Amino acid sequence: MTTFKKSKNLLSISADSKTIKGEKIGYLTGILYLAPANTTKYNTCSMAHKAQCAVACLYSAGRGAFNSVQQSRIDKTLYFFEARAEFMDQLVKNVQSLIKKAYAKKLDPLVRLNGTSDIRWETIPVTIDGVPYANIFEAFPTVQFYDYTKDANRKDLPVNYDLTFSYSGVSTFAPYVQKAQSKGMRMAVVFRKIENIPLSFKGIRVVSGDNSDVRHLDDQGVIVGLYAKGAAKRDNTGFVVN
Asked: N or C terminus of the chain with fewer C-beta within 10 Å?
């Protein structure tokens, strides 16, 4: 087993400008950041190769550019894969703490588990006080969870788990984009610069994705326009749209 630090604070709460903006519309957001794709020996993003998004990943944006932050995310990833039951126990405690903080501020708790990963959390069971649950969403039915995903095949999701499909324009990923479109999924698209964000993309209405990260309030079937940050500014694979 690999040596790693077991963090007691798995969720980053209002730690970036977009989630802070979410507080203005009534939400306190906690995000779990793991190490993306093949950063460790465990692949946390099954579609990263086909979407060619690993290099441009938001892993390098903002605070993620610091070595200490990246090491923390690696430790959390190893914790998740190598001490799963203990990790889930800690995650439950952190969600409970977020709920208390949110209510104290008269805000609604909002949780994103795939800050820089793409794990199928709906398949991961959790036990609280001896009571087994199919997943963490079932354990906290009154809490809204959300994520971005490049996996268009996810289905039978809990009602309190909202997904936004993450677009990539590389040819190997085209079938998955088509599937997401056929399902009417909301789709996030990263454009090169903020001034490049159009009013429509592929004939679909574009809404701003940088006003906040409260995605579940957006309509399904729209394009969520984002602009490149971190290493994504230099991406030329097709993941970032010019």
From this structure: N
Q: What is the pLDDT of residues 23-73, one digit of tens each?
A: 999 999 999 999 988 788 999 998 888 887 766 665 444 444 457 888 999
Residues 6+ apart with CB under 8 A from 3: none
What φ, ψ does residue 118 adopt, rounded to 5°? -145, 60
Cα 74 to Cα 7, 10, 19, 92, 225: the distances in Å are: 11, 12, 22, 20, 29
* Nearest one of 146, 161, 165 to 204, comparing CA atoms: 165
> Angle 84-104/67-82 helices, nearest 10 degrees?
120
Q: What is the largest CA-CA distance in the chain?
A: 52
Say if CB 162 and CB 196 are below 8 A apart: no
Helix ranges restricted to H, the chain: 17-23, 48-51, 67-82, 84-104, 136-139, 174-182
Q: Is the pLDDT of residue 209 over 80?
A: yes
- Mode of pairing for the β-strands spanning 108-112 and 187-191: unpaired
d(CA 187, CA 184): 9
- Mean pLDDT of the region 12-21: 90
Q: Residues, the chain, total?
A: 242
| Torsion (CA) 12, 166, 66, 102 in degrees, nearest 10 | -10
CA distance linking residue 149 with residue 124, whole number of Å:
16
Alpha-carbon distances, residue 201 vs 57, 146, 183, 204, 242 (angstroms): 21, 23, 17, 5, 12
